[in-house]
Design brief:
Elements (H helix, E strand, L loop, with lengths): L1 H18 L12 H28 L4 E3 L5 H22 L2 H10 L1 H19 L6 H25 L3 H17 L10 E3 L10 H25 L8
Antiparallel strand pairs: 1-2
Length: 232
């Protein structure tokens, strides 16, 4: 939490020095529309992410069971951990620097730069430096999602939608289905894991459909969203 406070303080200082503005550029004030958008994009993204695990159950015969060690304290700790993680990344990549880039060079260039930086950052957070294949996959997947997050901010000048999409994906993948860095979450994979051969169609459905569906559906919704006006 201290890190988030430091980030907000530095953000205020930077935007005041360069733009003589304040933290309103983050769009954090909770209006009815922003709260509605948050839950809408969060739920849609969580459903899209879940399709990958449902596909694994159907095609690969995986079994997922309720975690026998699940406790309320574990749920609250995981939710808080994910919120802090998402806020930390959003304040870096869709925060004050991104806002200034939009002001100075326009939305398209700023979005591209932000997504490239987001992809490179995950080389380090995923610890794949030195493995060219994993670096390419990590850069492509996180960079593409970074495009969506950045577009969400550029369209609304608020962190509500990018945080909702980011959190919906992370908490579903990392906690609901226990495929993240914090250990077992709500559902855990049953053992022994089945060894099956699937078709190319099934393989690519499992691998790509969740992210593609999240990208397409959220992009369409954002496209229809009214363009917010940048603060003068």
């Amino acid at each position: 939490m201290i890190g988030i406070i430091v980030q907000l303080s530095l953000s205020w200082l930077i935007v005041w020095l360069f733009e003589k503005g304040n933290l309103s550029f983050l769009g954090l004030y909770p209006t009815k529309r922003r709260v509605f958008d948050f839950f809408l994009f969060f739920i849609i993204t969580a459903i899209c992410c879940s399709t990958g695990f449902f596909s694994r159950m159907y095609f690969a015969k995986e079994q997922w069971e309720l975690n026998p060690s699940l406790k309320i304290s574990l749920i609250l700790e995981a939710i808080w951990w994910n919120i802090k993680s998402v806020l930390f990344e959003e304040l870096i990549f869709r925060g004050v620097i991104f806002y200034i880039f939009i002001r100075k060079m326009g939305s398209i260039k700023a979005i591209i730069i932000s997504s490239i930086a987001f992809g490179i950052y995950h080389w380090f957070s995923f610890e794949v430096i030195g493995n060219p294949t994993q670096m390419a996959i990590t850069f492509a997947t996180t960079g593409i999602m970074g495009l969506l997050y950045a577009y969400g901010y550029a369209k609304t000048f608020s962190l509500y939608i990018p945080c909702a999409i980011h959190l919906g994906w992370n908490i579903t993948q990392g906690f609901i289905f226990s495929q993240g860095p914090i250990g077992n979450g709500i559902f855990v994979q049953g053992l022994p894991q089945p060894v099956v051969t699937v078709s190319y169609f099934a393989y690519f459905t499992i691998l790509f459909f969740p992210m593609l569906s999240a990208l397409v559906i959220n992009f369409i919704l954002l496209k229809k969203h009214k363009q917010a006006q940048i603060n003068a």
